[in-house]
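Reopening this one. Same input as before:
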Amino acid sequence: MSKRALATIALSLALLGPAAAQRPSRYEVMDDTTVTRTLNFAAGGGRSLDVRNINGFIRAEATNDTGVQMSIHKVIRAETRDDLAEAERDVRLDFKEGAARVEAVVTDRRGQVCGEPWRNDEERWEHVHYDVKYDFTIRVPRTAAIRLCTINGGDVIVNGTQGDFDVTNVNGLIEMNKVAGSGRAHTVNGPVTVSFTANPKQPSSFKSVNGNVEVSFLDGLAAEFAMKTFNGGLFTDFDVQSLPGKVSAAGERRNGRFVYRANEFTRVRVGSGGPEITFETLNGNVRARRGAGR
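Same output, byte for byte:
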């Protein structure tokens, strides 16, 4: 998701979300259901899971199963029975299976999907008379790659996966425990906490706007850290060597000269160097820790 899309979503939720949370009493009608679903992969090839939520949490636990087991708790709150029926029509949960990538994707009444560019149009501000929330509890094959995304009303928690990852949130934390693989974990409002059982082999990124970023690696890490915070500190347990800051790829001409602005990241090398691992927050601390191991 682009920075512009995240900023747009965060602003919208800041304007709309708290107000809705303060008026739960207007929802006098509720429908509460739990659905279980198994998504099977096609034979052969790599496997990946793509779960896109809008309101609600995502919790994923690694297993040795061959398929994805899902328990999905759906709650609709509405002002009237007609509004509840409208919510059922407007907000969809669609599944895809029998391929290398299996999916569970929530789409709202405007066709918006988490992780895709968010349209900024007048229709978006239209008042609705319902609230729909999905909470996903997932058992995923240990080596499958994962893409998990939610926006409001829940955290994203991952335990034990070994595949590459793309995990995003807006109003909630990201917590990844004893994972492997490479990828990114980005949120806006909340901390990002990750512990590895195998060090990333490819470039990876961990980011928040309002929250601490804390990532634990194993001994023997060989990488280059790019670390940045505006209100907070940068900390690491590893022995590091300073690296020169990167400059932006494009400069501007001033008085007949090209002027480049240095990147604001602090860059250091761990061990013999390797993939670039980026840590970034605006309001919070960055900690790259030496973990306890497997």
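So the earlier flakiness isn't reproducible anymore. For the record, The mean pLDDT is 88.
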